[in-house]
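hi support,

uploading two proteins for the ticket. first:
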Amino acid sequence: MNESALSRAVSLISEGAKFGLVSHVDPDGDSAGSMLAAMLMLHRTGKEVFWLQNQPIPDLYNFLPGYSHTDAQPRTGENRLDLGELDCLIVLDSPNISRVAWDYDSNDVPAKAVLNIDHHKDNELFGDVNIVDGAASSTTELLYSIVESLELGNDTDIATNIYTGLSTDTGSFSFSNTTPRSYRTAARLVEAGVDVAFITRHLQCDFTLPRLAFLGRILSSVQSNDDGSIVWMVGTDDMRRDVDFWGSTEQFANYAMRIRAAKVAMLFVQNGDGGHKVSLRSRGQVDVGLVAKAFGGGGHKRAAGCRIQGDLSSGIADLVREIEIGLKQGLAQA
């Protein structure tokens, strides 16, 4: 990490009084953990915090410290923040402003300065201060450096949020983005009092019966292309109604990667407005971050997401075609 950028980030936080927090659309474990950790970090240092995220954190993470305090901040209407009203806006885990989930845009940022903390390799460095490292396992891993600089590294609640983001973005330390630094950070978090068993139990063993039933419906929908290298699953609103489940489907896409021949997996979940949220996973032969970007989304080489509108069959065919091109190019370069 750039030490000069870290020093400037710490100065921004130390000198400011009013802060806004936001992350990317469809928040996952890393964005949830980093936002909640940042909120607690700011509260501990006496700052006023405005939660600008206009999408709820999935209830999968309702066990995290600070989760219950994420829905009471002004955003719109008479409570809309004015241009430059905040001292600093902290954008977490988003490669650009256009992918954040809020009711503003790049032309009416309600802050005097923007602190950009992210680990996407295609980050556009849009902040006044950028804590960006594409080699980092997660945004929470980067945020922890700021937390430690503010002498809050031993705060167990903050550490719990950081560990959750680190664990989810590394697949419980099983993905290729897991590095020695990830393990060293995890060790410090455990030393700070993180209960690893508690977090793991909530992340992996906290299904409700309807959630498990919906996962079963999704698994039974599995299909593949001719050679089995691309696998996809579908979750529809009708399937949700059948089992009465309307919660988060995060991590469901990972199940398709358990198929031996699969090089890329996709999960299409209907979002109620005629479109589908698409989660993509890859073993590395194809950069699904680039695939998702071609469809208006984004992400990482091995995990990304986008949304498609219109006919589902056409959307699946378009994505399969794009991925097959990528697989052929990868074979040609091998």
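and the second one:
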Amino acid sequence: MIAVWWAYGVFGAVLAIGLAVLVRRGDWQQAQGLDTLLLLGPIFYAAPVAAFGTEHFTLSSSMVSMVPHWIPGHLFWLYFVGGCFIAGALSLVTGIQARLAASLFALTFFLFVVLMDAPGWAHHLDNRFAAALTLRELSFSGGALALAASLNGAWRDRGRRALATVARYCVGVPVLFYAFEQLRHAHHVPGIPLELVTPVWIVGHAFWTYFAGAVYVVAGLYLLAGRKTRAAATWIAATVLVVELAVYVPFAVAERASLVGFNYLADTLMYGGAVLLLAGAMPREE
């Protein structure tokens, strides 16, 4: 129960700090249309990652086994990454060294893919959930890379565009895989097609998975084709936020005494934040 309180407390604190900074800067008044939603990208990315950072401390005994066996000092790296998650999240929402934090998040999640998720998937190639988890971490890396590219004013336009293009593929490929999985397995949760089956008491439980899959197909193809990328990423993120409200918030309320509900809610919100970060790095269409 302590782990649950810490997760929700840090999540809420970072969310509140991010919104307060956003209001103080007056960015709301300058944004128009769907661009208003893009302002929430760093907050939606940072609040969950800070909460996940607390779990490195409160659930250390069960999480330490996730560190590859050949890396020395398992417990040190677990605590180190947890502390960095919290510090980096505060950096993103306050704008203090945000470019550095975004770059390190991109590198960290890419290392997670290379060192843990991809090898695990390689041992179970027929496990679609292992594939979904690997591509989720890749999306988290791509979203942070897109933010780093958009904040890197010292680079030439070509360099920023190259980073943004890599980020676009890191998000676009998982989107199409998720679209395929959601249209095939509508009884599983929408957004990120993981093992959890959508509870039957969720209103329209299968509809939300079909809905997300349909949007992912169209918008994902636009992303990979490099056409209307800003609008495509924004609509994907908006879809994630809709299913967040329709499915994951009620589920988190029902499972409020455990981390299961919170982790699904925060995980999906972070995915939506990553896609919003990509949208913010894409060029504006006429």
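thanks. also noticed: DSSP finds twelve helices and no strands in the chain.
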